[in-house]
Fold this sequence. Notes:
Elements: H1 3-20, E1 24-28, E2 33-35, H2 55-68, E3 72-76, E4 82-89, E5 95-106, H3 109-115, H4 122-126, E6 130-131, H5 133-147, H6 163-179, H7 186-198, H8 201-218, H9 223-243, H10 248-262, H11 268-284, H12 290-308, H13 315-322, H14 326-337, H15 341-356, H16 364-370, H17 376-387, H18 391-398
Parallel strand pairs: 5-6
Antiparallel strand pairs: 1-2, 1-5, 3-4, 4-5
Helix pairs in contact: 6-8, 7-8, 7-9, 8-11, 9-10, 9-11, 12-14
Amino acid sequence: MTEAELELLQKYAGHLSGLTRSSCRVVDSRKQQVLGGGPDAFCRGGGCSNASCELYATYAYGCSEAGRWGGKYIYYCREGLVFVAASVTDDMGGLEGGLVLGPIVMGRLDDALADCRTPGAAEGLSRLENFSTRQVNDAAELMAAVLSPLSGAPYGPAISYRQEDILQAIYAERARLEQEPCPYPVDMEKRLQALIREGDKPGAQALLNDLLARIFLISNFDLDTSRIRVVELLTLLSRATIDAGADSAEIIWFNTECVKALRSCHTQDELGAWITGIMHRFINYTFDFSSLKHSDTVYKVIEYIRANYSQKITLDEIARHVHFSKTYLSRIFKEETGENISAYINRIRIDKAKLLLADKGISLVEVASLVGFEDQSYFTKVFKALTGTPPKRYQESRARF
């Protein structure tokens, strides 16, 4: 990113800060720094004392995900506050940085205060801007549109696979095979695994092109045979990713989903683009943003539960919503919040039930149904366990009407 582009981004950040009355900062991915951009009412000295939060890592994660998802991304920090990121890429699709707006309270301030883990943060939170979901989405769209002219090629794993690259690799491999036939390039697989363990995307991409060319040639460009070889390659990539520190349960689950998706590849080109995207996903699992990704996922789960507490919620549905396996999701939710998902669902439902019980005219059966309990006796049992009081007695002591 040039100095002129950085100056322009800082100018845009200032305008966005003035418009939204929230902090907007510039992220320079090349120099790994965060620059200026308006008032910060919470992150630095205004309420957050989370020792594990590193400003650059938080902002860089947002820009990285924005690059992967069409230029914009909305995410949560560990305190449950919202950030909006927009990315800038170079001509080759590499991430150069972007803008990050936030922190923002999305929704009710009372909910943000209830979810905040930092003692004494109420004053800092109350100074933050309060956006609706619509306003947050509007900000994301606006930021992406503003930065789009500064970006080159789209950023993301699919762009890393280009047909001309693989064709060149095929020609080169064909010439090698004519001079020195080789049944299967085991040595290339081992080198690819090493590059993934090191998180070397450019090196892994170049070697993967050569390896795919060799696979296609040995398979005589037969798609079914190529698929079998690619599944074998997928296993090797996943092992390298686990060796690099990724969660084994999550990788195994991801592999299962990948094999299902592989059936949708109907050409060699689609197959090459698909395995390239998978490789980059595996490399991303080794990034330093894992704890931030977990926090983001946890708050997506919390948001989903708050929006659907009145209905039947299953762990399968929640896992599908955040694209994680049930086992892995349950573990990281417990690590981040200190309670399991079912306990959190019950706590939210009981909190909502307390509000309804302020109306003496509503029956316990109706309250139980409105907060998602199908059985009144179970509702009574959970309510008493969490509050120490049966719901009927609670209603009689709190009723206003």
